[in-house]
Design a protein that fits this description.
four-stranded mixed β-sheet, five-stranded mixed β-sheet, alpha+beta, about 240 residues, Immunoglobulin-like, elongated
């Protein structure tokens, strides 16, 4: 920039913006890229994190998106990227990089953001660790003698079916199961998913299924009755 010099550092051979060399302007204007440290609540059991009232994956990619959503920049035509630099017991360090323009000059800025975690427990893990369930599937022998191997095979089938649906509904998980005197009890968090799993199971194992309902209370918000469903499955 012929005839110009930076009043702060004296540079004459750099791009200028609003009367200063672009490096000094960037140094004096930290709000060009704002990326503050954040604290997230993280479930101690499944490691999901709470973001905007929803428990989401705690993977580096997912947390990186949360960090990116909080970034502010005054650059024109900005592009922001986030990557994990360091992971430790006290938190993670992410690098925020932003490219854009100041006037007609292209610039690239970076910041480091520390993500700290507070201990918590998500609603689904809380239900799983307690006695909550929506559906009880009772696997019982079809004949006089119990075939425990067959019932274990059915249990594996039900768990695999439920896992295939957990991406859309975490209540799809089998919350727990227990071996009882004459079979296996399987506890589901979702009636819809339990029905899907049982329908698929019928095509393979051809069980006899009976359905019953138990009143557990009333939803105070809607006034509707709440039920637990039991499926007696003879295999």
């Amino acid at each position: 920039m012929k005839g110009k010099f930076c009043p702060k550092c004296g540079a004459t051979n750099k791009p200028f913006y609003r009367g200063f060399c672009i490096d000094c302007y960037i140094k004096d204007h930290p709000k060009l890229l704002q990326a503050d440290d954040i604290t997230l609540k993280r479930c101690q059991k499944c490691l999901r994190v709470l973001s905007r009232g929803e428990w989401v994956s705690g993977s580096p990619e997912s947390v990186g998106k949360i960090v990116a959503s909080k970034v502010k920049t005054q650059l024109k035509e900005p592009k922001v990227s986030v990557r994990l630099l360091e992971s430790g017991t006290k938190g993670d360090i992410y690098e925020v990089a932003a490219t854009g323009r100041l006037g007609s000059e292209p610039v690239a800025l970076t910041r480091e953001v520390k993500v700290s975690y507070q201990k918590g427990i998500c609603d689904v893990c809380s239900r799983k660790s307690g006695n909550y369930y929506e559906v009880l599937v009772q696997l019982r022998p079809a004949g006089e003698e119990a075939d425990l191997g067959r019932m274990k095979s059915v249990l594996v089938f039900l768990r695999n079916e439920s896992r295939s649906l957990t991406k859309k509904d975490r209540n799809a998980e089998v919350f727990r199961y227990s071996f009882v005197k004459d079979g296996i009890d399987v506890f589901f968090g979702s009636l819809r998913v339990a029905k899907i799993a049982l329908q698929h199971m019928q095509a393979t194992y051809h069980p006899k299924v009976k359905e019953s309902y138990t009143l557990t209370g009333v939803d105070h918000a809607s006034g509707k009755r709440r039920y637990r469903v039991t499926f007696s499955v003879r295999v």
